[in-house]
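Protocol step 4 of 5: obtain the predicted structure for the target chain.
Materials: sequence only (see below). No template structures provided, no constraints applied. The aim of this step is simply to have a reference model before the mutagenesis design in step 5. Sequence pasted as it appears in the construct record:
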Amino acid sequence: MTNLHDYRQRADAIKLTADEQACQLLEDLLRELESLNHANERLRKSLSASRKSSGMSSKLRDALYE
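Step 4 output (structure tokens):
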């Protein structure tokens, strides 16, 4: 599985030959990827914690199944 660091390195290599708009798009996509990765980690931690408790809250269950 490719991690964020690998994606950043690949994007940096592409930026050497890409125009300014493509570079900006890559930066925007990498920021979004990082944001989604952090949100995913938080959800996984919440899910893990809720499994340890008596039951999953309805709000968490609804958010995870969306």
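Step 4 remarks: The chain has a mean pLDDT of 87. DSSP finds three helices and no strands in the chain.
Proceed to step 5.
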